[in-house]
Specification:
Length: 216
């Protein structure tokens, strides 16, 4: 698959706030003592399952995630929610990956991008407008730490699962948040962020390959 037209909104959070939302097998991964949460809308395209093209394989997705580490193991992502328009993605719930169907849209003109979504008729949703700024020629440590993650964790049937993710490093630009109206954070049990969002945008990466999920 390819992940395109990506935006990252990142907020710092105290690690203790995040830890209470994680299963006991995982601990918050921190950057200089600080935990982070990211809201990431994008478009998934050229999607294949076991090498077979997925019908309607170009569609928007939005995920809300934090950064974790398995005790004694590799760092990765933990998803609070994943909203998507394609019902085939709901099969990932078998591994505890919290996909939900939602109405999502991605629009853009010039350097401005607009994302919107709503889960159900009265569920949580968001509206985001960002403006892409200068290209980041040399990402700093935080830029790379927040965007380049190559494992995703989930819980199913009391077991911890780890799915490897492989892709090239993200090409990144700085971004400016023009508008944000969202209820995904509080729906996930998170308090309102105490700081402004750090914004990245990217044209995308691909191909992205997901490995076979492994226990632990």
């Amino acid at each position: 698959m390819h992940w395109t037209r990506q935006t990252f909104l990142h907020w710092p959070y105290p690690s203790a706030v995040l830890q209470r939302l994680l299963p006991p097998h995982l601990e918050v991964d921190v950057f200089e003592g600080q935990g982070w949460v990211s809201l990431t809308p994008f478009v998934m395209s050229s999607t294949r399952v076991l090498g077979v093209p997925l019908p309607g394989g170009t569609f928007p997705e939005t995920n809300l995630r934090t950064y974790v580490r398995r005790k004694g193991g590799p760092s990765g992502l933990w998803f609070f929610s994943l909203d998507v328009t394609h019902p085939a993605m709901l099969a990932a719930r078998l591994l505890g990956i919290p996909y939900s169907l939602a109405r999502l849209s991605v629009q853009g003109q010039g350097r401005t991008r607009h994302y919107a979504g709503r889960r159900g008729r009265r569920g949580p949703g968001y509206e985001i407008e960002v403006r892409t700024g200068r290209c980041i020629e040399a990402p700093d440590r935080l830029d790379s730490w927040l965007t380049n993650r190559f494992h995703a964790y989930s819980m199913s049937a009391g077991l911890l699962w780890r799915t490897p993710v492989r892709h090239e490093p993200w090409p990144l630009s700085r971004g400016t948040l023009v508008r944000l109206d969202e209820s995904l954070l509080t729906s996930a049990g998170l308090p309102e962020p105490a700081a402004s969002a750090l914004v990245h945008t990217s044209p995308g990466v691909g191909p992205v390959r997901l490995g076979f999920p492994r226990h632990g």
